[in-house]
Amino acid sequence: MTKVAKVALVTGGSRGIGAATARQLAHLGYTVVINYARNHAAAMQVAEGIIAQGGKAITLQADVSVEADVVRLFADIDRQLGRLDVLVNNAGILLPQGRVEDVTAERVNRLFNTNVTSYFLCCREAIKRMSHRHGGPGGSIVNVSSAASRLGSPNEYVDYAATKGAIDTLTRGLSLEVAEEGIRVNCVRPGFIDTDMHADGGEADRIQRVKANIPLKRGGEASEVAAAIVFLLGDAASYITGSFLDVAGGR
Fold first, then answer.
1. CA dist list (Å): 207 to 48, 54, 79, 124, 162
2. Which CATH superfamily is domain 7-247 in?
3. What CA–CA distances, in Å, run from 44 to 33, 38, 149, 153?
4. What are the CB-based long-range contacts (under 8 Å, 24+) for 147-152?
5. Whole-angstrom distance, CA of residue 243 vs CA of residue 245
């Protein structure tokens, strides 16, 4: 009998931590769904690189902050691949640095819609497919939070940090809710990681400014965060749920 490859969905998989995670999962034999919101070319580049190395990957467009897009995304997975075993909630945005006294409702709502609502929606759809309660085979979810959820990111990104605090709470609560249904839910909290996201916040070389304050004296690599995600998803972590793995250089 031919062994059916497990299917992994990585939201925000076209760059940074998401792309690194997609590559590592494909290397382990998963069929990877690379979700992207707008940058089709970048998503295709990741997928083509995986395929060139003998892996399996497809790209699917969806703005996961929009409920109808999420429903369509999971329906597309059902139709094209017929199963879902792993969800990596990674999609997120960072807006230009600022203080709380300068925030607007539009900014805060945009951050929460993308960084929090999307995680809830994707978890909802994944549970419907994974849970024993719904006849599913079980599965594993990893939410990508941030060390900012613990540190607060004063004078820079308190609003972003607050969205990641919400993800920490989601992880803990959901892990307890679905533990008896065959689904493990864990969380990775990256620190200062060398990705394009810092440019989104207006300071592309931010790591150079702050690295002296990191115990390991350097920024992390996307591949290092991906390795933590892949560990928590896999069988080696089969007795771990509701847990947090900080990949933050000691912060």
1. 30, 34, 42, 35, 21
2. NAD(P)-binding Rossmann-like Domain (3.40.50.720)
3. 11, 12, 32, 33
4. 147/189, 147/190, 147/191, 147/246, 147/248, 147/251, 149/189, 150/189, 150/246, 151/251
5. 7
Closest by Cα among 135, 134, 90, 112 to 229: 90
Question: Tokens 């203080």 belong to which residue?
Answer: 99
Instruction: Note if 160 is an active site residue.
Output: yes
Token pair, residue 125, equals 């759809």
C-beta separation of 18 from 195 below 8 A: no
Rounded CA-CA distance 172/132 in Å is 19
User: pLDDT grade, residue 202 (50/70/90)?
Assistant: low
Question: Is residue 128's pLDDT more than 70?
Answer: yes
Q: Is the pTM higher than 0.90?
A: yes
Confidence band for 2, pLDDT divided at 50, 70 and 90: very low
Task: For the chain, state the CA radius of gyration.
Answer: 17
Number of residues that make up the chain: 251
**Residue in 36, 119, 160, 239 annotated catalytic:** 160
